[in-house]
Amino acid sequence: VMDDFSLISTLIFISGAILTVLISISYAEARSIDRGEYYALMIFAVSGMSMMVASSDFLSFFLGLEVLSISLYVLIGFEQEEAGSNEGALKYFLLGAFASGFILYGIALLYGACGSTEYNLIIQTLAADRSETVNLLFLGGLGLLLVGLGFKISMVPFHAWTPDVYQGAPTPIAAFLSTGSKAAAFMVLIRLLGSVFADLQMEWSPLVMLLAVLTIAVGNVVALVQTNLKRLLAYSSIAHAGYMLLPFISNNLDGSASIIFYLIVYTAMNLGAFGVLAVLTSRGVSCSTLENLAGLGRRHPLLAAIMALVMFSLAGIPPTAGFMAKFHLFSAVVTGGHIEIAIIGLLFSGISLYYYLRVIVWMYMRPADPGLTETRQCLSLSGMTALCLSALTILAVGIFPSKFLELAQRAVMTLQ
User: CA 402, 333, 343 angle in degrees (round to 5)?
Assistant: First the structure.
């Protein structure tokens, strides 16, 4: 189906892909992976994401999922000379294959319950027949789908692959994986939980609430001890997945709109953070740990300023977009009558200040290594363009959020 929901989703994926391509150009050249297949696979991945969210049948959704997954398996292992890249690709491939198996088993149970894989026929069957056998088949199918999609969004306890894969993958691909792939899975969840399985909310809501709180807790607590930047951003990504799961327990249009708004902001924030690392790497500077960022405020004031803005936004400090995204997300949770869950989320959001602000401390308050040398003298034009666009989006959405909120609300109106 081509409705506002699938159209706006596709715009988010394409925007993320364009920014990823911009930060990839100099990085791919510096790392000797600037081959045509790199960009072709990204286009395949975006087409898979678009197919996933536009599907009105579980089989076409699964085809889109596989197109996305197979493209990512190759992209993660694109730096063939790097052991970490090969390791990350193999881990993602093996666990991704299991996740796909769970999704297929879930689709099989749903087919057994109503004799069709079409969303509309499943909704009709669920409304007409609420017998115990049919309910068990539906709940079993939904549970297995949650396992598979939980893997894609890095939901605890299906998150173990995330730090290893983000650390090993080429930096722009880690950015693409943390934004596009996650956004596609969340958009599918919005369609499934908000429309297809809305009648079963009493059954699935407590489970989603528990998993959301666990995901927030694990992501934030483990991130506190990380010194590797990609692993820190990976655990941050897990925590943000937990925040985006919270509005599902309210299961209303405001909650779904707040998730889409959060995804728009999250895409700009994560691409900005990984983009800074990619631009530094393309200059021949190692930036794998916090120590590597020491003195960045003096060496590259603009890069340091963009990274600081992204960290403030990820922490939810006004007037950045991250603050507005968290405000509307927690407002939707409170409006849905779950104020205690919102308080838990806010407390863990406060804990996250430690590891986000620690990055800023290293950039501005620690001296640079005197022996540090850079192989290139000028910053990548395409990479800096992407970073400036991300920074402007973070500021624009933080100060003028209404247009983006209207876009998110327009998307979910079609799911009624």
Answer: 115
Q: Residue 133 has what pLDDT? A: 67
The amino acid present at 257, given as its one-letter code, is: A
Closest CA to 88 of 13, 25, 160: 160
Identify whether the C-beta of residue 30 lies closer than 8 Å to the C-beta of residue 286: no
Peptide bond into 319 cis (omega under 30): yes
> Per-residue b/e over 265-288, b at no fewer than 16 CB within 10 Å?
bbbbbbbbbbbbbbbbbbbebebb
Listed range (128-142, 148-162, 254-268, 368-382) with the worst mean pLDDT: 368-382
Q: Could you give phi then psi for residue 121, rounded to 5 degrees?
A: -70, -35
393-411 CB burial, b ≥16 within 10 A, e <16: bbbebbeebeebbebbbeb
DSSP sequence for 370-415: TT---S-SS--HHHHHHHHHHHHHHHHHHH--HHHHHHHHHHHHTT
pTM attached to this predicted model = 0.94
Instruction: Report the b/e string of 116-130 with b at 16+ CB within 10 A.
Output: ebbbeebbebbeeee
* Other CB atoms within 10 Å distance of the CB of residue 259: 27
Question: Is 347:340 a contact under the CB 8 Å cutoff?
Answer: no
Whether 197 has a pLDDT exceeding 60, the answer reads yes
Q: Which of 401, 110, 370 is nearest to 264 (CA)?
A: 401
Answer whether 286's CB lies under 8 Å from 373's CB.
no
Please report the sign of the dihedral spanned by the C-alpha atoms of residue 351, residue 352, residue 358, residue 361: negative
What distances in angstroms separate CA 13 from CA 6, 101, 181, one per listed residue?
Answer: 10, 25, 9
pLDDT band at 45 (very low <50, low <70, confident <90, very high): very high
Q: Kindly state the tokens that stand for 111.
A: 């087919």
User: Residues, the chain, total?
Assistant: 416
Convert 66-81 to b/e letters by CB count within 10 Å (16 or more is b).
Answer: bbbbbbbbbbbbbbee
